[in-house]
Structure formats: C-alpha cells, structure tokens
Amino acid sequence: MSALVGLKPASRRLEPYRKLPEHERLAVCQTLVTGVLKDFWTMRATLSPTRVLRKHFRRVTSHDAQRFVDDVKEIALFTVNGVKWAYKGKLKKRTSVKLVFERIDARAPASPRELALKVLSEYEERLGVKTAKLVIRRYKTRAAFCELRSRRVYVNESLLGLGEEVIRYLIAHELVHLKLRTTRHGDEFYRLFHALVPPEAAGEAERRIVKKLFQLAEGDGAHG
Ligand SMILES: [Zn+2]
Predict the structure, then answer these.
(1) Is the C or the N end of the chain the one with fewer CB within 10 Å?
(2) pTM score, whole prediction
(3) What separation in Å is there between the alpha carbon of 157 and the centre of ligand 1?
(4) How far is the CA of 215 from the centre of ligand 1 (A)?
C-alpha cells in the first residue's frame, strides 16, 4: 500500500508486529492512516493487514492482524492537516480489515443556526432533558437565557458566528438550567456543565462572548 511508503522499515523491525514497542506499532498505523487520508473526505478501504504488515515484518499472523486493527482504533481520533478523523472500521474474517475513516467535522453545517440545533439535540440526549423551543434572536446585551416554565432557550444570534465552542457553551449552560430546574449556578450546575464543556473551553468561550458583547455595546453607543 503506497501509504506505507513514508515508513522506513529498519532491519530490526523484521520481527513479528506484535513484538514491536507500542509507539512503533502506532507509528505504522499512523503512517498508513495519514497517508491514506490526506486526499479524501471519507475513506473506505478494504485491505489485508497481514499483507500490509508483511512488507515490513517477517512473520505476521492473524494475531498481528487483530493487534493492528486494535492499534488503528487507538488512533481512531486524530488530526490530519487540521481536520479531525474518526476510524469506524472493523476486522472482517480474521485477516481482512475494512478501514473506514470519516471526517468528524465533515462539511461544516450550512449555518450557525443549524449547528446550534445539532448541538442542542446532542446535549438534550446527554442530559436527558427536552427543550420546547430554541429561539435565536439578536439581543444587545444578553448572551443567552432560558424560561424554566415554558422550557424555551434563547440565544443571541450575534454570538453564533463566534464558533462552535461558543455555541456549545451557550446551549450547554441553558440546558443545564432546564435540567436542574433552577437558574442558579451552584456546585451541581457546574458539575453537569463542565461534563459537557470542560473548564478550559468554557473560559475561552466566555472571553469571546464578553469581547463580542462589549463590541456590540460600543457599536450601539456610537450610533446613538
Ligand atoms: Zn446561567
């Protein structure tokens, strides 16, 4: 497989695949995977790991093939040229593997609104909570808020263009309020919220939101 061209097998690698140190095995997989993926949005390939591996290692068994498949799973989430990929392949029979890779962020959603709806349903499922309606409107000073009784979530449209992290931050925040049926920010709130949005990502999103709201307020002042 041409994907392995970049891999220079040293003579000491002429041993069973499974006996290689983990980082070398992963390097083999990584080379294969990145070599195969760089030009494709979605890659589907059926190949025989034993055949691929035999080019580099003296004795390859079906155990090696299974190990190879497991190793590829280890690097299932990886980045090539800034694009995230996931491995969804599986071993067929014992020595043939179907490698299926898909872009995680394949084709950005048509609009931030669409992305917001996608994030909403993802978090609804994770929290086990249902929103009555997502309302997206322009607000001058508010980032997002919710009504516990009507189960509506309101998000400031002006902030949606700030990226997925911000969208996740805003929606996760309001859904946790709906889940806990309170608008307070106690320990339980932050426990659930940070399970969806880790503190670092939340901090970054907050900075962007505050900056944008400040700009909106300034623009408003300048015009009036
Ligand atoms: Zn809140």
Answers:
(1) C
(2) 0.53
(3) 17
(4) 22
